Amino acid sequence: MTTVSARGLTKHFGVVRAVEDLTFEVPPGMVTGFLGPNGAGKTTTLRMVLGLIQPSAGEALIGGRRYQQLPLPRRVVGAVLEATGYHPGRRGRHHTRIAAGFAGADGRGIEHVLDQVGLLDAADRRVGSYSLGMRQRLGLATALLGDPEVLILDEPGNGLDPEGIAWLRHLLRGLAADGRTVLVSSHVLSEVAQTVDHVVIINSGRLRFSGPLRELASGTVAVRTSQPEELRRHLARRGYEVTMTGASTLEVRGATTEQVGQVAATAHVALSTLTDNGASLEEAFLRLTSSKEPAAATASS
Questions:
Q1: Which of 29, 80, 132, 266 is most buried when burial is the number of CB atoms within 10 A of its CB?
Q2: What is the number of domains present in the chain?
Q3: By C-alpha distance, which of 197, 68, 194, 82 is closest to 140?
Q4: Are the beta carbons of 86 and 135 closer than 8 angstroms?
Q5: What is the rounded CA–CA span in Å between residue 5 and residue 18?
């Protein structure tokens, strides 16, 4: 399994400091969300990881090597940075065949990846007739051709409809479950919260957070019960922060729905509703990116 890492990664364009002293790791077997506001330095960072831009300082490593040092880089790393650059008159299957040649991949895998991304029926259409979502799928097909250990994707959900977004989520989580390292840049926080296990957040080119999603997004659990005071006492004894929000409702911070349910069961308190209010990724993101000052940003995994 292959880890992607940045060590003091820095890029200056003249007086513009696009990326400044980034250090983080992208672990294998997980989907990692790479997040930040527009202009935060995400694409510049990804391009340095892929050897497309030379860092001003520091290094980006894939399995302990720079991209240029990998013997067959496109067999190790599959990447999609933008859904452009396709010849409009070329058919999808032909485009994928050419990409397989560049990647040094077995051409017999073309049909498999086209099927994997849901383009098999459209493979003989010209790319110029493809929608943005179909071009995203074509980019994913070419990224998967070499059966890579690492996938690096910049806004892969652009142009996908809700069904396509759900398909993409399932695909990425399946690839991570196979032990691959999946790094996804996205601005759709609601989807990120449902997809990723690990998060790297940058702002103004600096690291704001790197660690498991659960360490970042501490949401709340809403509970309704006919014994609110009894449940509140038991939860407070466990160290959870509990607020009475109504005559029969509570809000619990710092606990999961499973933990709240276990406390209630042990205390023999019946619950009528138990709702996870969701990992507060958006709230944490806005807090971390509202200031340009660097944060103590690395959480233990």
A1: 80
A2: 2
A3: 82
A4: yes
A5: 18
